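Dear H.,

Thanks for agreeing to be a second pair of eyes. The structure we're designing against is below in token form, covering all 260 positions.
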């Protein structure tokens, strides 16, 4: 407890009283943190634009054991995306990424991998708007994986046999478990080698490179992995997300990617 300094990404802000804000951040050291920024809505606030959504900041806050909300002391901008606010598709996509993190990350639970994934996905979305949808799918899959809701794509969840070898069919269950033919127990849907390749390559590729691979795959494989990621998110939340996914379809993204 006491003063904490960490890198953070602003996910959302709310008005509080006449001049204050409640700020929700994904932090590198403390997970999702909710805090009060006193005077943040004043014209000459010390926070300036440092609490705008999706801004990467160096956050300093005071935490008291008995209080749910921390007190935000300082916010130094490390990277901002103010120009992205002009593009409705980017704003929509980033809003969805923020919702994913808020819904799946428990408050104050450190998850540096989730923080780094979110930071990289936001940056890739802003810099590559033609790849918004597959970047969103990448973020969905990684969020599910890091929260234990998507199984390892390399090994069968039943027998541990290495998947992807020649002659081994791969099946995915409604829960997102991957199994070989022997362990499918009459359930699950067979996935193509292309879909399995995308599921395994996300372990080593960043959001831009993975999105390019997804956009370049067949329309059928792209739609399958997109619908599967969306279904697993809805299953975990037990409802539709409040934010919509990026408005671009994989088909339109693919056309833009190959220059048709």
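And this is the sequence the design step returned. I haven't edited it by hand at all.
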């Amino acid at each position: 407890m006491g003063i904490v300094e960490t890198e953070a990404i602003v996910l959302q802000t709310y008005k509080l009283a006449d001049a204050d804000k409640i700020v929700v951040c994904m932090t590198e050291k403390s997970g999702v943190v909710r805090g009060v920024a006193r005077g943040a809505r004043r014209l000459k606030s010390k926070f300036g634009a440092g609490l705008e959504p999706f801004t990467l900041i160096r956050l300093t806050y005071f935490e008291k054991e008995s209080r749910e909300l921390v007190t935000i002391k300082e916010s130094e901008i490390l990277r901002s995306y103010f120009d992205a606010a002009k593009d409705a598709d980017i704003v929509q996509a980033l809003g969805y990424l923020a919702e994913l993190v808020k819904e799946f990350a428990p408050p104050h639970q450190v998850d540096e991998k989730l923080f780094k994934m979110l930071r990289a996905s936001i940056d890739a979305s802003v810099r590559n708007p033609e790849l918004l949808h597959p970047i969103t799918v990448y973020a969905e899959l990684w969020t599910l994986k890091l929260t234990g809701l998507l199984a390892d794509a390399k090994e069968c969840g039943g027998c541990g046999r290495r998947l992807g070898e020649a002659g081994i069919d791969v099946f995915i269950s409604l829960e997102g478990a991957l199994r070989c033919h022997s362990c499918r127990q009459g359930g699950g849907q067979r996935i193509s080698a292309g879909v399995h390749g995308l599921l395994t390559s996300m372990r080593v590729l960043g959001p831009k490179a993975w999105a390019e691979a997804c956009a370049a795959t067949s329309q059928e494989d792209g739609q399958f992995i997109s619908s599967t990621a969306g279904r697993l998110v809805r299953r975990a939340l037990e409802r539709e997300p409040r934010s919509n996914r990026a408005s671009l379809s994989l088909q339109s993204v693919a056309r833009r990617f190959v220059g048709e």
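Two observations from my side: The beta strands are 2-16, 20-27, 31-37, 56-63, 70-79, 170-172, 178-180, 189-191. The chain has two domains: 2-80, 84-258.

Warmly,
E.
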